[in-house]
Prior knowledge:
Structural class of chain A: mainly alpha
Helix content of chain A: over 70%
Strand content of chain A: under 5%
CATH architecture of the largest domain in chain A: Orthogonal Bundle
Order of helices and strands of chain A: HHHHHHHHHHHHHH
CATH class of the largest domain in chain B: Mainly Alpha
Oligomer: heterodimer
Shape of chain A: flat
Largest sheet of chain A: none
Amino acid sequence: MDPRKFRLGLLFATAAIALSFVAPLAPGVPSLLARPGLWQAAALAGALFLAAAWFADARAIVPGLAGVIAAAIVSLLLLHDSNIAGNATAGFWSIVTAAWLAAAMCVVALAALRPVRKERRRLINILVPLLFGATVFYLWEVAVRGFGVPPVIFPSPSAAALRFAASLPTLAADFNQTFIKGVLIGYAIGCGAGLLVAILAHRFEFLGRGLLPLGNFFSALPLVGIAPIMVMWFGFDWPSKAAVVALVTFFPMLVNAIAGLSAAGHIERDLMRSYAASHRQSLTKLYLPAALPFIFNALKINATLALIGAIVAEFFGTPTQGIGFRISTEAGRMAIDMVWAEIALAALAGMAFYGFVTLAERATTFWHPSYRT
Amino acid sequence: MTSNSLALGGVSPRRLSHHPLVERYAPVITTVLALVAIWYIAAVAMNWTLVRDGFEREETPYTVSDVLAGTMDAERPLLPAPHQIASNFFDTVFGYPPLAPRSLVYHSLVTLSATLLGFLLGGVFGIVLALLIVHSRVLERSLLPWIICSQMVPILALAPIFIVVLGALGLHGLLPKAIISAYLCFFPIAIGMVKGFTSPDLLQIELMRTWSATPRQVLWKLRWPAAVPFLFASLKVAITISLIGAIVAELPTGAEAGIGARLLAGSYYGQTVQLWSALVAAAVLSWGLITIVGLVERGVNRSMGAR
């Protein structure tokens, strides 16, 4: 990052803070100077930006981020004034602009850092996307409340978070119905069956050559369309969701596991044969370990597919709980904050699921070249 | 020397069972036939009680063969037999003028238009994102993790909200569906293209630098050609996903036309045969789209001088 650009950006942020003292926050409300506590905080943010502009290198990041936090707090507190929320003007938006500009500058500077120590590099790799995301959420919050967007169209993240906290029992019931019963059971059945059939296909070559093209064909089909049929067969409760999930996850696992089982090299196979290993021995000691990276690839693909499959199956009929059910009914009642709370739940569940699979992969395939850096 | 090459000696290449065509297609055909057979058996087993109860309700005398025949052409079977689906499929595809609301062609076209628009939007968005990420380290480090996170959100859950929000903004019909399928399919394209744009190795990039090529020249003369195989691989994945997105987007929106609407109507009114033939239509559509992408890929490869 060019230090001159960095300094210029931070100076702009300082100027924007200064502007907010002069420009009106909203039509007909007292100015920033008439609000004790807030104007000191805004002045502090301006001073911190100025200090950061003075350094304009890696040392600027800490005061810059502190200033961003101060400016963000000032703008969020200002929004509590019901005269400002919904009809904010130049003074308010200049604080937001200052916070955004300084945050962007600091993220850019942080991303350009090349620390020698490994832990620090890892810390920065986590910190940069987190700061980016926090900035996006802050802008979303401020824009929704500052412009007074009706919550029916687009709720603020804080409203969704409040709703999340207020309806924890409902969310827990939905999570249990959709994720624990539908997704996990279906995922286990689908992936297990896919792996078993792949092992059979690997054992009997004729079957394998017949199944592989079919598996490729089926895994490219929009299989979630089978959901209404499964609801018809297995009823409204979780078994139909588990059946959809099992079917959706079966083919990716089959295709990947067949590819993985044939990934063992010729030399290793010959070695197993020269040890007179039985099929079971070479399966557990050679083929399956060699297939693990492929199997985990399928498990990761399936982690996302499973959640989608279960939620879509719920659109076709559920008992009165479940993430998909709640989303479609609450969207019909225009309770969009609840919908976002459910989406946050689904996202958290999806990320945790994916993260868990990734951790398991790290623990079991540490020997693979892609991890041996 | 490997065990396989050692083992090859004893087999006579003349036998019919080792003809290359037979070796290639016999397993596939056998598996398909086995699946169809299993399907018929399952159809008999699943529809048996249904048909028998029907006979008993009407109090007509029946034999086993009557019930057996009944399971093959029940009106609302639990599992329709393959020939029922096939005849319904051909009836609804060829039996009506293509734009009649009862024709499956019409519904497929509605879904296809949303799919293609979504695919176009998602493709352009994915490629632009990949370009931004490749050209900016900051974006790579800050945006890429969030793009990956966005895929762990069950995106289809967003479909109803998109419809509500876009409906409030006055957008109806094709565009909301297309946006959902675009949201679904931009990801494989973006990830594949990031991989593709970064696939030229250091040597080639340094060669470009010794010719003092501008970043734009590096992009057009090196990165784009190198990314083409990745582009088509991800396009094949993306076009199926975009079809899935278009179908699923029709479910919560209560659309009147489209394969998703057909699925929903079939499940509401218990018209299982119609439901299955809509599924077959989706399969044919998906297979056709992938084939078209494959053909375009072959054409592009040939015009770029591959082989």
